[in-house]
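Sync notes, pocket subgroup
Present: LS, DG
LS reminded everyone that the earlier model was apo-only. Rerun requested with XIL included. Inputs:
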Amino acid sequence: MKLDRRNFLIAASTATMATRIKAEVIKESIQKHGLADAFVGDYHVGAAVSTDTILSEDKPTLKLLEREFSSITAENCQKWEEVHPSEDSWNWSASDKFVDFGEQNNKHILGHALVWHSQIPSSVFQDKAGDTVSASVLRRRMENHIGTLVGRYKGRVHTWDVVNEAVSDDGYDDWRPSAWFQILGNRYMEEAFNLARQADPNAELLYNDYNMHYPQKREFLVGVFKDYLDRGVPLDGVGFQAHYMLDDPELEQIEKSIDAYSALGLPIHITELDVDVLPKAFEYMGAEISTNFEYSDKLNPYPTELPDILQEKLASRYEKLFGLFSKHQDRIKRVTLWGVSDADSWKNNWPVRGRTNYPLLFDRQLNPKLAYTRLMNLKR
Ligand code: XIL
């Protein structure tokens, strides 16, 4: 074709159009391909979903979940006090919607948490007169709770946090003296796993806890898990909550724990990742949710915006953590963030109420933060 002025203009406008279309396609593919797509060869990347997001059908947050994450965890809506507030009453509204949303969007769905000492009515451990129930009564209640909840979502919820935080905060080398333990002894834990397996033989069953990198805790739990595996207790994997700080724990400690638990042949799930950027209120390093410290302005230094230097530190911390997880991608099945954006993080209220924290990958307007860009760059 002779390139006269007319043909040139046509060719030029076609080229411009092609460039425009290409730009749109690229934009769209960036939008379609979120964080979980970038890490698809390594592990699921998930987020916890709040009861409010589910019940209010918060569109922007749900859209972001759809695009960026391949797995979702029930942040609160399947905890005993929310889903089973009294012996004969069940509240399925948020939980059902959560599971429906996961199914409609093809997500790996996590149920959280069946047996735990927190967020459970004290009446579970008492009779009508307020006295402590016998072992057989409590066992029946646990059977009913697990059977009903896991049974309802049989074949739909893929993974359950069966027992949460069973280790003592005092020395980290023994069972937590919870009501479960006091009434049933340490066998309550394996009974919970057996009941969950009975209720859904195909669901994956996890033990979940914080400070999994503490050497004493690691030693204690490795002993318990070894015994379980020897005796055929149906434990399928280990959850590290991973409520971390900017500089603590060190990567080396985390890596040692990945090695120790996965040496038993158990896959690791990073179940509740976030990075606290605020000053430490105390020396206690756990995540026991009843802990609470008094607010002061000194403990809340960035009420409007996170300074660039900390944004950079946060990004680099996330980059290193995901770098470590990807190094061990053959042992890590999932990395879940505990919340979607800084606006809905529990870290704004724990361990001190009313602070402004910045622990996640999306800001309060749901825009990706520098940390998000760094993670995407790890995979480019
Ligand atoms: C937190 C929720 O994020 C909060 O909304 C709630 O008020 C308290 O519990 N370890 C766990 C999670 O296993 O269930 C906790 O979630 C955080 C610590």
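DG: Residues 32-378 form a domain with the TIM Barrel fold (CATH 3.20.20.80).
LS: Residues 75-76, 113, 164, 241, 272, 287, 289, 346 surround XIL (CB under 6 Å).
Action: DG to write up.
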